[in-house]
Design a protein that fits this description.
The chain has 246 residues and is of the alpha/beta class. Helices cover 33% and strands 26% of the residues.
């Protein structure tokens, strides 16, 4: 079932097209990656989907409702965790509920039940500078989920982590997504990450940026670390590299 539909989106800046005629869709409970090199317009696309930018042409629909140019409909997590340093983790995470009008005590109560599920138990009273990069990203993802449990836009959420932490976070992320079933668009320029995490991959290339290919990853999730060194993984990677070159 379609959750989010992007139809024929074109965005220009100072008369120069940044992205052109982009049509993509996100089904319920899917993780779909937008894969492309830096500067191709991936973040512009996300800013448009989130309503921060109004497109020159095209529409965005959430569950059949036109949300083009309006904010507050989908959650958006940037590369940096953007946790407020002067707030505890539970107050950082519960911020979306407070913004929506919940009392702080009630928001904390509603949020606390998710801490164990997200591997954050015991961090409620800590501050961001007391957590590792991986734990801060977990907190940021929980905050994103609480803003909207319908659709999330994740803009390279693991790019700042070292390779060992990133690998661990990938496995954690696949596990928690099996539990929360959050329909997600994920920006990445990491081919391995896209193959491991995604149900489908859109390849974005060119200037202006366009969708040049769509690839379905058919292996059952959650996928373990053995998948990354499997023959099927290498076939997906070879296919993607060929499409990026072409």
């Amino acid at each position: 079932m379609k959750r989010l539909t992007v139809k024929n989106i074109t965005v220009s800046y100072e008369g120069c097209k940044i992205i052109e005629d982009i049509s993509i869709e996100l089904n319920r409970d899917e993780i779909v990656s937008i894969l492309g090199v830096s500067g191709v317009g991936k973040t512009t696309l996300f800013n448009t989907i989130s309503g921060l930018i109004k497109p020159d042409t095209g529409t965005i629909e959430l569950d059949g409702k036109d949300i083009t140019g309006t904010t507050g409909n989908v959650s958006y997590m940037l590369q940096k965790d953007l946790l407020l340093p002067y707030k505890t983790i539970i107050d950082n995470v519960s911020l979306p509920l407070v913004i929506r009008g919940e009392r702080k005590s009630k928001a904390r109560e509603m949020t606390s039940g998710y801490f164990e599920e997200f591997g954050l138990e015991g961090t409620q009273a800590k501050y961001p500078n007391q957590l590792s990069g991986g734990m801060r990203q977990r907190a940021a993802l929980l905050r994103t989920y609480l803003f909207s449990n319908q659709v999330a836009l994740l803009d390279e959420p693991f790019s700042a982590l070292d390779s060992i932490t990133k690998s661990s976070m990938h496995q954690w992320y696949l596990g928690v997504m099996e539990q929360i079933k959050l329909s997600t668009f994920l920006i990445t320029h990491d081919i391995d990450e896209a193959i491991l995490l995604s149900d489908r991959i859109y390849i974005m290339a060119g200037k202006p940026g366009k969708i040049t290919a769509e690839i379905a990853i058919k292996e059952i999730k959650p996928r373990n670390e053995d998948f990354v060194v499997s023959e099927s993984f290498m076939k997906y990677k070879k296919n993607i590299l060929e499409k990026l070159k072409s």
